[in-house]
Amino acid sequence: MNMNYKLNSIVPWGRNLEEYKTMFSLSKQDLQKKILGCGDGPSSFNAELTALGGDVTSIDPIYEFTKEQLTKRIDEVAVEVMGMVRQYSSNFVWKNIKSPEELERVRMSAMRAFLADYQQGLEQKRYRFEILPNLSFENKRFDLALSSHFLFLYSEHLDFEFHLNAILEMLRVAEEVRIFPLMTLNNIYSPHLDKVREVLAERGYKSEIIKTEYEFQQGGDEMLKVSLCKNI
Ligand SMILES: C[S@@+](CC[C@H](N)C(=O)[O-])C[C@H]1O[C@@H](n2cnc3c(N)ncnc32)[C@H](O)[C@@H]1O
To answer: What is the pLDDT of residue 2?
Structure first.
């Protein structure tokens, strides 16, 4: 086992397809693309979109664990996370999700859908144990690579080099990258954002900040969209 990813140190917590659609402004055409979800964890994005005929691969260090191990950890974490959400409920925007009770229902139902799909998804190689900033896929294997609640959010733990290398690796395997949110866990813009965009521009990529309809973390309603500049 990779010592950096001990089961009792991870906090599995997953969103659903509807939330991914809103966070990343995914159009009908986007949903038909070959999609790579980076750090999808126990979200039901892959399970739900696959059931609708989509082509999604998810990578995450937690896919090293068995369904039984993840089920146990999800149940433990749900109690801790919901306790914190209730205690600090005024820190969140109850717009897309209206209350802590609804949040618990939505999150648990997403994670149950993930767990129900997990074994089959592992066999079909839709869930793959891979760790950014290195991916095993060939160049441009995907149309779109997504990062929800991983890059930028953990900027206090993951440095600028990590962010740049992870995003460049996502751009190596996909035509376009979208990242949501741009805020850290402390509700400030990621300190890496401007520098990452500057270096991406030097390397010939255009990046746009796009406001989306999704907001749960205060001010966290924007995504970064990155692709190669066509005129270079
Ligand atoms: C807060 S969760 C977000 C889960 C999901 N994307 C969502 O929005 O519901 C962050 C995820 O990033 C994963 N992660 C942590 N380090 C990673 C790395 N180096 N490469 C890829 N994923 C990583 C974690 O295991 C976890 O599942």
So the answer is: 43
* Ligand 1 pocket test target in 5, 13, 60 with most atoms within 8 Å of CB: 60
Q: Which of 130, 106, 125, 127 has its CA nearest to residue 46?
A: 127
At which residue do the structure tokens 């055409």 appear?
29
Count of domains observed in the chain: 1
Cα angle at 25 between 14 and 123, to 5 degrees?
45
Lowest-confidence region among 7-11, 25-29, 165-169, 226-230 = 7-11
Q: How far lies 120's CA from each of 47, 49, 50, 83, 206, in Å?
A: 10, 14, 11, 32, 37
What mean pLDDT do residues 189-209 have?
A: 98
pLDDT of residue 96: 85
74 contacts: CB under 8 Å, gap ≥ 6: 12, 42, 111, 115
Domain enclosing residue 67, as ranges: 3-228
Q: Which two structure tokens, joined as six digits, stand for 132?
A: 């950014």
Which CATH number covers residue 45? 3.40.50.150
Assessment of whether the complete model's pTM goes beyond 0.70: yes
Q: Quick check: CB of 181 below 6 Å from ligand 1?
A: no
